[in-house]
Amino acid sequence: MRTLLCLLASVLALPAVEVVPLHLDGLLQPQVAVGADGTVHVVGVTPDADGSDVVYRRRAPGGTFGAARTVDDQAKSATCIGSIRGARLALGRADSVHIAWNGRDGKAVWYSRDFAPQRNLLPPGDGVDGGGAIAADAQGHVAVVFHHQAGATDEEGRQVAVVASADDGATLAAPRALALPARGVCGCCSLAAGLDAKGRVEVLVRDATGGARDIWFVSGDGTGRELGPWRIATCPLSTAAYLRHGSATYLAWEQQGQVWWCQAGRAPISCGPGKHPALAVDAAGAVLVAWATGTGWNRGGEVRWQAYDQRGTALGAPGTQPGLPVWGTPAAFAEGPGKFTVIY
Question: Does the pTM of the predicted model rise above 0.85?
Answer without folding.
Answer: yes
